[in-house]
Amino acid sequence: MPRRAVKNIEFEFSSGNVFRDLELPDSEELKIKSGLAIEITRAMRRRGLTQQEAARQMGISQGKVSGLTRGDFSNLSEAKLMRCVNRLGYDIEIKLSPTRKSVGRRVLAIA
Q1: What is the domain count for the chain?
Q2: Does residue 109 form part of some domain?
Q3: CATH of the domain at 29
Q4: One pLDDT digit (tens) per residue for the chain, 111 residues
Q5: The pTM is what?
Q6: Is 15 helix (H, G, I), strand (E, B) or coil?
């Protein structure tokens, strides 16, 4: 990452994925899961759902909802998070396209 200093404060430009910047394994998966968790939390607030109500609607335990709203989504798969988002009134569209690179990438776009 390129570094720069402003007023003697050194900083580094982000790659757009904080998990990759921190050199965490599975950074792409973490970015997608965190985006889904953020949208779930937003939907709960927008609908005025308690954790118990949201848990019932999403089909998971209240404890998992509690963890999710605190940023702990390690015990939930991407597929389960997508089902939760669906149950909160979101459509999910998966678009596949060929890449010129040997390995593709995954992107989460929230409208």
Answers
A1: 1
A2: yes
A3: 1.10.260.40
A4: 566 767 888 878 888 888 888 888 888 899 999 999 999 999 999 999 999 999 999 999 999 999 999 999 889 999 999 999 999 999 998 888 888 888 888 887 887
A5: 0.79
A6: coil
